[in-house]
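Entry 12.
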Amino acid sequence: MEITNEQKGKLFKIILIVGIILALFLGVKVLSELKNLNEDDNKNINVISFTGHGEVNAVPDIANISFTIHKEAKTVKEAQDSVAQIENKSLSFLRGNKIEDKDIKTQNASFNPKYDYTNPCLNSYPRPCDPVSPKIVGYEAYESISVKIRNTDNVGTIMQGLGSLSVTDLSGPNFSIDDEDALKAEARKQAIDDAKEKAKSLARDLGVHLGKITSFNENGNYPMPMYAKTDMAMGSSAPAVAELPKGENTITSDVTITFEIR
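Predicted 3D structure (tokens):
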């Protein structure tokens, strides 16, 4: 039986399709085998890890303080007005000492009712008594403000001045560094150099060669806040300005670097 040209064409197309499928199957199979070989090679890679430490000392260039204004009155408005009066005096004092508005921030402002919880039934025995609900006898208003002082030599004067304005809960200073990024980078570089030197030294002693870095990890122990305790009277008297030593803040970096070894 003679095969027509049309049948030959169809047969050729079928053979071509089967060939393409086989080629794709073989390609996937080859890639899979290469991947397995690569994974096996990676499993056989020898690695070694080293730790490095770096630290930078710097004198703090800012101080953070905070204070609260607390007043009580018969009405909410009276309590808030009393707080506002002290707040205005405090802000005027801070601006007079060259503290910019961007460095003065209200953290919280609130008011709460004050209740009388006296229970007349406690002393009514043996006579019967109907319990009464607590009643509002006044209101408390609060405002908490934080201040960033950029001239750290002026901290004692500012805290003393605020203390004379009837603010409450005056706390700080917390000495810190305004821009730590450059110091963190310097400490990190020291830590990396330390780890690399340890790696090179040990590689020489073992007679091996260091390959590429396979992993890197950093743990930073950045400066803890430094608080200077002060004992400033909250009255109108003017005690001597307290000296508040700033000391130094230490910024550290600890890294772990893992190398291939050959």
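Annotation: Confidence is low (pLDDT under 50) at residues 224-239. The chain has two domains: 46-60+179-262, 62-176.
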